[in-house]
Amino acid sequence: xxxxxxxxxxxxxxxxxxxxxxxxxxxxxxxxxxxxxxxxxxxxxxxxxxxxxxxxxxxxxxxxxxxxxxxxxxxxxxxxxxxxxxxxxxxxxxxxxxxxxxxxxxxxxxxxxxxxxxxxxxxxxxxxxxxxxxxxxxxxxxxxxxxxxxxxxxxxxxxxxxxxxxxxxxxxxxxxxxxxxxxxxxxxxxxxxxxxxxxxxxxxxxxxxxxxxxxxxxxxxxxxxxxxxxxxxxxxxxxxxxxxxxxxxxxxxxxxxxxxxxxxxxxxxxxxx
Length: 273
Fold this sequence. Notes:
Blueprint: H1 3-7, E1 11-14, E2 20-23, H2 28-46, H3 50-66, H4 79-106, H5 115-130, H6 133-144, H7 148-171, H8 177-184, H9 189-220, H10 231-240, H11 244-272
Antiparallel strand pairs: 1-2
């Protein structure tokens, strides 16, 4: 019996046949208390001020009002950065999704029996997954220079870590019968993996890759803030110059693009799964 059950004893229910059943108390009050305590702590640590928020919230609506109507004649200047954003997202998603496959294989306990290798690969994927995309893009700009190459690299790194975790967890749920039979017949692990495991995880793998690509389009749109190209570059510029009607046009273009990509991706994922 846990401490909570000692402090709040279970409710004893007597059934019609005379037997008694102990119904544990709900943990909801404890969860609410912990949540409130963490909220108060976060307010103290971050210095959040509700009074400032109430006083300044009207500025948000002032900026929003200046975005409407958007500056339609600015659209010709948006096309190229928009295509750069889509190209970064697509290429980065493909590179990251393909490169992570062998790493996901090495991180799967039902494929690799060496605990050290599995633990090392999972730790590696976890470390890569903790890197914020903007930080990765900033580092890439120092290494590769300003432009879409740095943005593509950042997207590839994020996709690598995101798909890697999902993929190795998916691999661990497959039927291992065909894999073990091929190994018993003398096939290598790689050969057995490609022939027996890949067909089982391929539909969900492709579906997850498409879903990741949807998100990458949104992430890529802000990488220009650190010089990684795409829509973020002109978005940062127009916000800096307080040209909010142009900002509104950029956001409209991004919204329409993301909506179209998500619609196509959703239809494709329905066919895959």
